[in-house]
Amino acid sequence: MRKQLAIGVSLLALTALGGVSENNFISDNQSGVHSQYTHFVRTSLNQFEPLSGASLDVGLPNRSKYQIAGVHFIVGDQGMNFGSAANNNDFSDPSGENCKRLGYSVTSCASGLFNSACPYNETIYDRCCDATYKYTSSQCSSPKTLSSDTCGGKHRCYCNTSTFPYTTCNDPQIKGNACTDDTGTRYATCTCPSGVATPYGCETFYKAPCSSVCQKAYADNCRNRTAVQTPYGCESYFSDCSSKCEKAYPDNCRNRTAVATPYGCKQTYGDCQSKCEIAYPDNCHNRTAVISSCPANATCSYFSDCSSKIQSWSCNSGYEKSGNSCVASIKSRACQYVGDILYGDGTCADDVNKLDPNKTPIGVVFDVTNRLAIALTDALEDGSVGSDFMHWSSGCCCDTPNLKNCTDESTVKTTCGIDGRANTDAILASKCNGVLYAVNAVNKYQISGCSKTFCQKGKWFLPSVKELYTIDNNKSTINNTLSSLSSIGASQMSSRFYWSSTEASGGQVWQYVMEESPWDLFQRDKSIYYSNVRPVVKY
Question: Does pTM surpass 0.85?
Answer without folding.
Answer: no
